[in-house]
Task: inverse folding
């Protein structure tokens, strides 16, 4: 069974709890900090554009080796996807392992997926080392199949990963889905026992605190308008003045803008949407997600479901695509989709709905590199919690000239499309194409 991606659900007011907010659920426990404005420095070793976890991990890494670092953020720190995502910590790439094996051979496929693994493992190391209380756990992930063809495809893919990468998994036939999810919607699925989840708001606040404590200057409400090469580095023009930086890292992912036109031509911003339910009745969540795992689908255009870290609510996302001017309407469509997966939730109301931007790339790989002397790390294609953190580390190591800066993605050409200047008008058509592919694959 598929969920209609284009139904016209209206925003029935009764589905919204009295305290409903169009704001990330995460911001209740981790409100966005409004840092007091401080004078801009005249010169720093490294200027970083964007204060998500890519920018902050890079900043922290550089400050710890004695570099002076300024982070420029157009809004309040962490305004972007880093405090808005679903908090899944996995090893997801838009190219399956099987596809990479077929197209590029074993060595390349293993190298790419080993890097995904390194990013995933390092996230746990970082959180542990920095003692960031962000509810990071190895909760495990259930990946739902919408048909027996999906189920078989999934079994093949995870068997390949087990053989070549040693990654464990378990296939759950349809009659065993209830072990993991109280729903009859899926025709079986795969369980990846070691995938993780975290509270993105707390993860971001922890990184921000560690970066500031290490001496990083974080300048909120300081939008970068352009970067110009000079004899001794770069002049970074901001809404509050210019700063000379010996090196610059752009870490703006889905929020890339006119300040960096070369990157803007290479990134395709997509809007992601999530809703949170009001607290469930006692025992209800345990019946739906008995092991409190994250849930996702084995399709391009996915729905995803997870418990809130306090075990009280469900968070549900999907209908990724273009901008939606009426967030309540999008929330109503998500509410309807949630009830089709979990009909027992009839009557449940929503407490939060929000959106955020992620960045697709034309080759569906993340990108890290240098163009005209300016470093970049971005394009995580919807899965940037471990990868963005890892790329922040690697970009910093590259700026330091460290020998361990390499990633599996360094040598990829960063392509654009003729006539594309950064206006992603075609995103709804891409999503329709993926819907069609998903239906065809059933
Ligand atoms: C709804 C949603 C759900 C997601 N769920 C997951 C998930 O569960 N797991 C996962 O791995 N990934 C997920 N992602 C993706 C993940 O959140 C992102 O890949 C990651 O947060 C990117 O981090 P970042 O630091 O690179 O960019 P961001 O956190 O987006 O930060 C970029 C920052 O740059 C700033 N900026 C832009 N231009 C300028 C400028 N000119 N001057 C100054 N500042 C500027 C922006 O204001 C923004 O704050 C999700 C994304 C969305 C939108």
Result:
């Amino acid at each position: 069974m598929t969920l209609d991606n284009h139904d016209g659900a209206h925003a029935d007011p009764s589905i919204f709890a009295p305290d409903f907010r169009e704001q990330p659920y995460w911001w209740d426990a981790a409100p966005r900090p409004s840092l007091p404005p401080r004078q801009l420095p005249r010169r720093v070793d490294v200027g970083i554009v964007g204060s998500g976890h890519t920018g902050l991990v890079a900043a922290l890494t550089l400050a710890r080796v004695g570099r002076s670092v300024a982070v420029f953020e157009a809004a309040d720190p962490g305004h972007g996807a880093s405090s808005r995502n679903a908090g899944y910590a996995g090893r997801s790439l838009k190219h399956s392992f099987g596809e990479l094996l077929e197209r590029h051979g074993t060595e390349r496929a293993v190298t790419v997926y080993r890097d995904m693994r390194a990013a995933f493992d390092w996230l746990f190391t970082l959180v542990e080392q920095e003692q960031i209380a962000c509810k990071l756990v190895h909760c495990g992930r259930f990946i739902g199949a919408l048909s027996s063809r999906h189920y078989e495809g999934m079994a093949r893919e995870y068997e390949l990963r087990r053989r070549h990468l040693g990654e464990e998994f378990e296939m759950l036939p349809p009659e065993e889905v209830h072990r993991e999810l109280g729903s009859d919607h899926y025709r079986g699925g795969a369980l990846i026992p070691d995938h993780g989840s975290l509270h993105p708001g707390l993860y971001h606040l922890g990184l921000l605190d560690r970066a500031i404590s290490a001496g990083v200057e974080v300048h909120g409400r300081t939008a970068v308008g352009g970067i110009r090469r000079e004899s001794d580095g770069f002049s970074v023009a901001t809404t509050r003045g210019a700063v000379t930086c010996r090196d610059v890292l752009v870490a703006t992912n889905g929020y890339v803008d006119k300040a960096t036109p070369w990157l803007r031509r290479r990134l395709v911003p997509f809007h992601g949407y999530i809703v949170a339910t009001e607290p469930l009745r006692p025992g209800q969540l345990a019946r739906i997600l008995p092991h409190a795992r994250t849930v996702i689908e084995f399709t391009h255009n996915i729905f995803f479901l997870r418990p809130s870290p306090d075990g009280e609510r469900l968070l549900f996302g999907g209908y990724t695509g273009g901008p939606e001017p009426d967030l309540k309407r999008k929330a109503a469509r998500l509410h309807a989709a949630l009830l089709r997966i979990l009909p027992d939730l009839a009557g449940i109301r929503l407490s939060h709905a929000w959106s955020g931007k992620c960045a697709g790339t034309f080759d569906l790989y993340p990108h890290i590199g240098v163009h005209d002397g300016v470093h970049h790390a971005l394009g995580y294609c919807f899965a940037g919690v471990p990868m963005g953190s890892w790329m922040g580390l690697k970009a910093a190591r590259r700026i330091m000239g460290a020998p361990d800066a390499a990633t599996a993605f360094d040598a990829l050409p960063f392509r654009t499309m003729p006539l594309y200047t950064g206006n992603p008008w075609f995103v709804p058509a891409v999503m329709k194409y993926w819907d069609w592919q998903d239906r065809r694959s059933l």
Residues 172 and 203 are 32 Å apart (CA to CA). The chain has a mean pLDDT of 95. The chain has ten helices and 19 strands.
